[in-house]
Design a protein that fits this description.
- The complex is a heterodimer of chains A (296) and B (237).
- Helices cover 73% and strands 0% of the residues of chain A.
- Chain A contains eleven helices and no strands.
- A six-stranded mixed beta sheet of chain B has the order 6-7-8-3-9-10, sandwiched between helices. Chain B has a four-stranded antiparallel beta sheet with strand order 2-1-4-5, with helices on one face.
- In chain B, α3 packs parallel to α6 and α4 packs antiparallel against α6.
- The longest helix of chain B has 16 residues.
- The chains are: A mainly alpha (296), B alpha/beta (237).
Chain lengths: 296, 237
Amino acid sequence: MDTIIQQLLNAAQLGAVYALIALGYSMVYGIIRLINFAHGDIFMLGGFIGLIIVTHFGGLPFCLVMILAMLLTALVGVTIERVAYRKLRNAQRMSVVITALGVGIFLENLVRLLIGPETRQIPARLPTGSVVWLQQHLGVFVTWDKVLIILISLALMAVLWIIVNKTLVGTAMRAVADNASVVPLMGVNLNLIISVTFAIGSALAAAGGIFYGQAYSLDPYMGIDLGWKAFIAAVIGGIGSIEGAVIGAFLLAGVEVITVAYLSSNLKNGIAFGLLIILLLIWPSGIMGKPLLKKV
Amino acid sequence: MTCLRLEKLSVSYGAIKALRGIDLEVQEGEIVTLLGANGAGKSTTLRAISSMIPTDGGDILYQDQSIKDLPAHKLVSMGIAHVPEGRGVFPNLTVQENLALATWTNRKKDRVRSAYEKVFQTFPRLAERRTQLAGTLSGGEQQMLAMGRALMTDCRLILLDEPSMGLSPLLVKEVFRTLQEINALGFTLLLVEQNAHMALKIAHRAYVLENGRIVLEGPASELAKDPRVKEAYLGGA
């Protein structure tokens, strides 16, 4: 029983990180139909920005480190869209996908050049003691940082949900997803909304990067593997759907953790990608996705 | 006072010339209709005015100010609303959200409240369907929503692209009656229509476009009697 709870919490922690990345993929795809293959590397960069802040400003409280890293990474995301993607918005889909892959490779090499290829860990800033209550009542040994990572991630997702569904900016984002060409006729600056979407997606990825760098480790190429996983999570959930990205992320993490715990860690990726194929055969548009054929 | 003036406006799509230097004027408070066959350049004219497509040459003046190089969203804050062809409602947004988005450029509480009042008075149906997704509305209701959104912006001039398209004869009548009501509220309308008969009935003045050129213009009542208009657009003499 206690190991099952442990595994569930491991899955929730990994799933939270996947979800924070997957949301960015899904939101950007939702509004401009671009699969931003540089997004995994934005996640990596966010982690490293967090590491640099922690190393150089050791005194900053953790929440300030996070906010600062999220803001800086958001700025990078917005700049990438402005410089590399905007001019290609009406070009062939393939051109901008290739550009995105290029931006990703650029970021990987930039970080390797500036910081080095070694694996790093963000020094623990979250309390790492055991959650005494869980130990006493359930006999489960869980550290606070794991619980906090899961809770903060869920809180960030809740904030995102409120922004998207309850604010006028969010309404504009959903309107762009629905019918982008009409949005300027409402007086809304389309480029501004697209920038906001990249900013939010990048900030969430940075949060994921910091959590991952504290719970596991950072290296310049981590964005490839984790980016693909998060992308799969977004597709399984139904790319373009926020709820779908979260469901897909926790589902994928659950399958991975269970595979590692009860089968073999070598099978982890095989089973994850196999799951993608099977789920997409059942739901071609993903769990929460809308069928491609739209009425209207 | 002149609300909108097009001077020698030209537009092309690649090598194809869609507008070949048209001159057109809309006075404050008028309903002006732009008639013509499919492909004559009617929608192109409206799209050029609201900066949805680039222009080739000529100028567009709004309240005696050139607006040719301004981005589309800026024009809305200057007071030009555009009800696009095919209505262009956001199907996965509620009626309320569709309307709210159109208040983007002017969020002053009093203004927004009175805009809602105006819209729900003109289209009581929209008030009933506030929480419904726009995609689930009927064609006529979607047209009301598209016009309602225009009223929600802080506009003086409304460009309408074939508001009667695809509607039943009864609804067509209702749309044109509503347009007259909106005009009576003080809005200036530039109306592109295939339904020349109805458009000439409510318009003050009219222009006829053929192959990207204005071939006829004048008071709507006179154009309605013109044999060339009768033959080509009103189903024969």
